[in-house]
Amino acid sequence: MAQFEVTLAGFGGQGIMTAGQLLAYTGIEEKKQVVWLPSYGPEMRGGTAYCTVVISDTRIGSPIINNPTAACVFNRPSFDKFSPRVKPGGLLLVNSSLIDVTTDRTDITELLIPANKIALDAGNARVANIVILGAFIGASKIVSYEKTVEVIRSKLGRKKEMLDINLNVLEKGFKLALDIMKKAGKKEKA
Amino acid sequence: MPKILMKGNEAIAEAALRAGATNYFCYPITPQTEVAEYLARRMPEVGGVFLQAESEVAVGNILFGAAATGKRVFTSSSSPGISLMQEAISYIAGAQLPCVIVNIMRGGPGLGGILPAQSDYFQAVKGGGHGDYRLLVLAPSSIQEAVDLTMLSFYLADKYRNPVMVIGDGMIGQMMEPVEFPENYKEPPLPPKDWACTGAKDREPHIIKSLFLDPIALEENSLILHRKYEQMKTEEVRCELYKTSPKNKILIVSYGTMARICQTAIDELEAEGISVGLFRPISLFPYPEKELYTEVVRKNIEKVLVIEMSIGQMVEDVERIVKGARPIQFFGRTGGVVPSPEEAKEQIKLLLKKETIAKPRKKKKA
Amino acid sequence: MEDTKTIFTRPTALKETVTHYCPGCTHGVIHRLVAEVLDELDLRERTLGVAPVGCSVFAYNYINTDFLEAPHGRAPALATGFKRLRPDMIVFTYQGDGDLASIGMGEIVHSANRGEKFTVIFVNNGIYGMTGGQMAPTTLEGQVTTTSPRGRNVADVGMPIRVCELLASLATPAYLERVAVHTPQNIIRAKRAVRKAFTCQVENRCFSLVEFLSTCPTNWGLTPAESKKWVEERTMKYFPLGCYKDPDKEVKG
Questions:
Q1: Contact B178 A62 (CB under 8 A)
Q2: Which of A39, B70, B112, B185 makes an SS bond possible with B196, Cβ 3.0 to 4.6 Å?
Q3: Segments making up each domain of chain B, as ranges
Q4: Do residues B246 and B298 touch, judged by C-beta distance below 8 A?
């Protein structure tokens, strides 16, 4: 890996910024260079929030990434905006609880993650962001699962009950993505 | 100390505290408000002074009064707020007081927008307010550099008894990167602040002023300032070269976040077999004039490309310094539009093909 | 000569300077009152003055303390910055009515409202003196100035601003008093007010402001004697003397 970029996008309040920051923290823990750049423009007031995280082994140039290696989209407007922008060969993680369409692109890997449903089943609708984070790590392998758990423990560990839910859904998202990637891999070979 | 992930605005705030600047005055404005919010929380922990004032006009003047104590003082704002502070900044420079002003620039003119821009270059570098004065201006391109330059700025302000401005576009304020704060931060020795107002006990009163009705006296004050700026030009020039090489035909000149975007363009072009170098001024005043000229007149350099997040401001300094030795091209986006690495690459390729900005061809009449 | 003793001297807080103020102008009296109080309370060696823009920009040539010279109207902002960093020092601003009630209205109102612990010496002569007699926010109705040659027209520019009354409307505790210096009795009362204002600061109690009804014979086009009469008959009618806010009375409420 030289450099990996991921854009996370959704409604304000879906924990987009937090998920991006957790990923950036994990990158630092793994001794990588990271940049986290939020959208802070007019969109913020309009309800759509997004951030881009760049993780690299070497010094990071532009913090502005128009075509990221991956996108995690949490709602339909974000799907429309960012799914065409993912680099060929990249990843698109779709929160299928809120997005009922899929991409017609064949040059990227699309993962449908029912993040809100998984979160609700685990007991808190607000942890959908952590579901997607887990899925992203499973699909991209850009940082290790173990380090992410460590970061979540240190950053979100204030309330034991919430921490347990967060770690639970992180694992669910992670495993779901591993499964999807495995099947996709088999399909490719077949 | 381990690296921590920090937002630029918060890192700048913390850096100032670490440099001993525990006196901060502010008025909210996007995209730098996190500096104020961070310090509102943090200042009581370090026993410093935090005050949100009624306007940037007041902030500039509170800074002026506070600077007269000899303690380290600073403020932060964004473009329209910095415009409102220009009155006080001119007085502070005229009265020779040290202070630090952080400008996290947004698009203008007027109320403009809140997205990143570099459109306050003229204002920062050429004076800003009235009279013959300059600010020492530093432009970081990463959060770590923002930390380092912010800490340095307080030393330089004290060294020259002159306001120092740290300028970054909105991205410098908003993005997060890992930063490390120096342990046991030390500065070179500074002269005692025997000019500060501390009460006229066992000495004549100190009068800190910028009024000199006698033109000869006023000229002398301006000459004192001028000599400081000349000293800055020999002692405080800072710049960075990136992938400059004797075989390069094009030299890019860019600063701040824009320079990083150019770096990405340069890296990607390198992968395509095209070698281009970057000259990045870190001190915008004093501008690294000799250093730039040396790079520009290298044998193979055919053209200079200045890229800014403005409609063309620093390019005027580059033209002044290059003095026609090489042709200079400019590319810029403004108003909060940030040129992408792809756009920068396209501009470089156009130059290499000698397809400079297309001139409208005269149509032959049929 | 053994029976003689000194009963009147220059306060140590006043420098030996030839005055640049016009004959009949009461800036000199007000400077002296400030200096006497600084001497009596033994504050001179830990005091900072902030000079305005206007005739009294040169206050630092007379008053023997450290001084800052502020941009027009911003003295309260400078005083805020200084005093916040040096609460152990005594800080006063010396401002005219153009400086305080026109260009500096924002700074004075917010400083008062924050309850900044400095003292304001507000000199209200109803006109811009230094620039040669233009209309001020405190110029009386019908009063002729170079920019109101037919007299202040309140239908056009509104009524004169009463600073003490305006600041008294703020809920934050303060000491606000309006005084005059056109007669010996008034000078004695005025000095009492200055003393009280500085005492409020020494005791770290509240913002304090003393408004002086002053004269400008040169730009009023009157003799010094006529100017004093003008204060008595005209200025004081619109700007009543008295205490507008007292921390002793406020605290109990």
A1: no
A2: B70
A3: 4-186+209-235, 240-352
A4: yes
Kindly list the distances between the CA atom of residue B210 and the CA atoms of B64, B218, B221, C19, C199, in Å, as whole numbers in the listed order. Answer: 12, 8, 8, 21, 31
Q: What DSSP state is assigned to residue B39? A: H
Q: Please give the CATH superfamily to which domain A3-96+106-189 belongs.
A: Pyruvate-ferredoxin oxidoreductase, PFOR, domain III (3.40.920.10)
Closest alpha carbon to A6 in A95, A68, A83: A68
Answer whether C77 sits within 8 Å of B67, measured CB to CB: no
The distance of B199 to chain C (nearest Cα, Å) reads 4
Rounded-to-integer distance, Cα C250 and Cα B208, Å: 37
Whether pLDDT at B358 is above 50: no
Contact partners for chain C, using 3 or more CB pairs closer than 8 A, are B
Give the chains touching A; criterion: ≥3 Cβ pairs < 8 Å.
Answer: B
Read off the tokens for C237. 């009618």
In the structure, do chain C and chain A come into contact, i.e. share 3 or more CB pairs under 8 Å? no
Domains of chain C: 27-250 (3.40.50.970)
CATH number assigned to the domain with residue range B240-352, chosen from the 4 options 3.90.1170.10, 3.30.70.2860, 3.90.650.10, 3.40.50.920: 3.40.50.920
Helix B143-160 / helix B215-235 crossing angle, nearest 10 deg: 140
Delimit the domains of chain A by residue range. 3-96+106-189
Fold agreement between B4-186+209-235 and B240-352: yes
CB proximity under 8 Å: A 52-81 to B: 59-64, 66
Residue of C nearest to B24 (CA): C81
Percent composition of chain B: helix, strand, coil (DSSP 3-state, to 5): 40, 20, 40
Q: Which of C65, C67, C78 sits opposite B64 (nearest CB)?
A: C78
Best of A64, A69, A87 to disrupt the B interface by mutation (most B CBs within 10 Å)? A64
Amino acid identity, position C105: M
Cα–Cα distances in Å, from A148 out to A38, A81, A91?
20, 28, 19
Copy the structure tokens of residue B347: 């501009």
Q: Is C211 on the interface with B (CB under 8 A)?
A: no
Evaluate if pTM is beyond 0.90: yes
- Distance, in Å, from the CA atom of C179 to the CA atom of C160, rounded to the nearest integer, reads 17
Half-sphere exposure of B320 (CA within 13 A, CB side): 8
Put simply, the answer to whether A40 touches B3 (Cβ < 8 Å) is: no
Residue B140 in contact with partner chain A when CB distance is under 8 A = no
Which of A29, A44, A62 to probe by mutation at the B interface, max B CB count within 10 Å? A62
Question: Subunits with at least 3 CB pairs below 8 A relative to chain B?
Answer: A, C
CATH number attached to the domain at B4-186+209-235: 3.40.50.970
B351 Cα to chain A: minimum distance (Å): 21
pLDDT digits 0-9 by tens, C32-51: 999 999 999 999 999 999 99
Q: Report the alpha-carbon distance of residue C167 to residue C245 in Å, rounded.
A: 9
Q: Mind listing the pLDDT tens digit of every residue in chain C (253 residues)? A: 678 899 899 999 999 999 999 999 999 999 999 999 999 999 999 999 999 999 999 999 999 999 999 999 999 999 999 999 999 999 999 999 999 999 999 999 999 999 999 999 999 999 999 999 999 999 999 999 999 999 999 999 999 999 999 999 999 999 999 999 999 999 999 999 999 999 999 999 999 999 999 999 999 999 999 999 999 999 999 999 999 999 988 544 3
